[in-house]
Amino acid sequence: MSTTTNAPINFAAREINIYLGIPFFIVGVIGGTLNIIVFLSLKTFRQNSCAFFLTVMSFVNIGQLVFSLLSRVMISGFGIDWTQSSLAFCKFRNYCLQLCALMSYTCMCLATIDQFLATSLSRRLQQLFNIKRAYGLCLSFSILWFLHGIPSLIWYNIISPTPGEPTCTITNSIFQKYNAYGYIVTLTGVLPICITVLFGSFAYWHVRQIPYRVVPLVRRELDKQLTSMVLVQVAFNVFVIVPYIILVILNFTVSFSNQSIDLSVLNLISPIFGMIYYLYFAVSF
Question: End-to-end CA distance of the chain, in Å?
Fold first, then answer.
């Protein structure tokens, strides 16, 4: 591809990252902070397991915006890439953005399952999740994802495929394939979407039955409110995550079978789908 063809595409990508990335970052950090304040300030929410999952999710979403979106804006928008000059930052950034993403999706899945159980007709299922078990689940998954990210600390390194142009990238081919299909496509794509859509649909059916059951008014309204929030988020997730998963598959396919798709088209849609993906972390609830 000629330099003349590359120039407008690179310019468009830079503008997209700047003029969409910065507003998304600001709105996401402010919105996440307000979510945390609301969930922690009201006693009703502090004692509710679903609200606890959403609180943790807000914390890690802010972390994802800081470590992933902000650095993406600096790299793609302003050409400031600390991962090229600092091996520690190269490894730490990728470790943290992976940890935050996995915890965010985990909390979203747990919140959806929690609302399915809380609105169930079965008293036994209603009592399956409580605030203590919510603490335990979040702690267990945190440890799991901390350990899961260790390969990122090992195999993300700075290399120079072109003299004078260092790049922070994965240097192990097996881990590269796992990162694309195991981590991005499965753990942060197909699996959370399937879980949230499935249990979200069941929760929606349960909520429609609430008016016909003898349930305390406060509990009824809280379940309806939290379930509505979760269901809106589930529908939103499908819209913003699926395009990014398709993009990852295309990028990985192109890198191993050159010219299987017009690279100019891929370079143009990459920043667009990337910014759409960050809406998940920026506009949660």
Answer: 42
11 - beta bridge partners? none
Single-letter residue type at 69 = L
Nearest to 32 by CA among 9, 63, 7, 53: 63
The sign one gets for the Cα dihedral 34, 109, 148, 251 is: negative
Condensed to tens digits (0 to 9), the pLDDT of residues 222-265 reads 666 667 777 787 888 888 888 888 888 877 776 555 554 566 66
Q: Which pLDDT does position 57 carry in this prediction?
A: 95
The CATH architecture to which 3-282 belongs is Up-down Bundle (1.20)
User: Over 50: is that where the pLDDT of 94 sits?
Assistant: yes
DSSP 84: G
Distance CA(243)–CA(272), nearest Å, equals 10
Residue 168 in contact with residue 90, Cβ under 8 Å? Answer: yes
- Helix and strand element counts for the chain (H, E): 13, 2
Task: Name all contacts of 204-209 with Cβ < 8 Å and 24+ positions apart.
Answer: 204/231, 206/116, 206/119, 206/120, 206/121, 207/119, 209/119, 209/121
Q: Would you report the helix, strand and coil content of the chain in percent, each value rounded to 5?
A: 85, 5, 15
What's the residue count for the chain?
A: 285
Task: Using CA atoms of 163, 173, 268, 70 in order, give the dihedral in degrees to the nearest 10.
Answer: -80
Q: CA–CA separation, 275 vs 277, rounded Å?
A: 5
The C-alpha atoms of residue 48 and residue 129 are separated, in whole angstroms, by 9
Q: What is the pLDDT of residues 40-62, one digit of tens each?
A: 988 877 888 988 999 999 999 99
